[in-house]
Amino acid sequence: MPGSDQKPRKVGFWYRFAAVMVKPPLVLLFKRDWRGMEHIPQDGGFITVVNHNSYLDPLSYAHYQYNTGRVPRFLAKVGLFRGGFVGAAMRGTGQIPVYRESADAVGAFRAAVEAIEKGECVAFYPEGTLTRDPAMWPMPGKTGAARVALLTRAPVIPVAQWGANLAMPPYAKEKKLRLFPRKTLTVQAGPAIDLSAFYEREPTADVLRQVTDVMMDAVTEQLAGIRGEPAPAERYDPRKAAVRRREQRTTQHKQRQHQHTQPDQAPAGAEAAEGEKNA
């Protein structure tokens, strides 16, 4: 497979140290099915957009990307950078802190752009969280990757993965690894997404949403190829699902209230009918 035998280059001490620590257990505990490495650019800055269905899948994706020789820089919650070994590793490997709901949030955007302009790979999880789709398909994405893509015009590579969710299902009551039978971690990259139709347009909220949808469609297409089944016609939106649940609860509540009043109304009707008969 193209790219699979290439040695990582210019990754630095911390990335190599992390690889030494993490790769052996991944190789021992899981089978691997790496696909589409030929789509990973060998030179220049680029963006990857990746689906997220397990707490384990950042490791499987990083392992895949490391083997292509183009290590990714992730956007990660700022809390991961604060102290300890994990914080040192995050800083040492050049990951990008995200300050959510803060005036500093724009700093992550700038850092991503700068990294791409320096010829690096920046990895986005556009969903922003683990998918809540009951069938593990990607949800609608946030527009951060679209903003960076339109500004830099760098190649955007869709990446889908499957298997980590079987070993560590998201939102499971018991957060433990399910190692047996031995799972296969499948990661597949597709060809660069053509966003040229958007380059000359003003990056309005509507345009950014359109670009994001194109990205998520490409990621979903790769995942459908891995799973060997068609994706749903409509992406699962947790906000819309929450609205539907509230509406269902309201309807059910009204139905219960109606059922409780019916027994009281029936005798009253019967008494009225009996009165008319006697009259």
Task: Give a structural overview.
This protein has helices at residues 12-29, 57-68, 84-92, 105-117, 144-152, 164-167, 205-227, 238-278, and strands at 31-35, 46-50, 72-77, 96-98, 121-124, 156-162, 184-189. The chain has 279 residues and is α/β, with parallel strands linked by helices. A seven-stranded mixed beta sheet has the order 1-7-6-2-5-3-4, with helices on both faces. The radius of gyration is 25 Å and the shape is globular.
For the biggest β-sheet, the strand order reads: 1-7-6-2-5-3-4
Structural class: alpha/beta
Q: Tell me the helix content.
A: 40-55%
Rg, rounded, reads 25 Å
- What fraction of the residues are assigned to beta strands by DSSP? 5-15%
* E-strand count: 7
Please report the distance between the alpha carbons of the first and last residues.
95 Å
Mean pLDDT: 86
* Spatial shape: globular
Outline the low-pLDDT stretches: 1-8
Order of helices and strands: HEEHEHEHEHEHEHH
Count helical runs: 8
Biggest sheet architecture: 7 strands, mixed
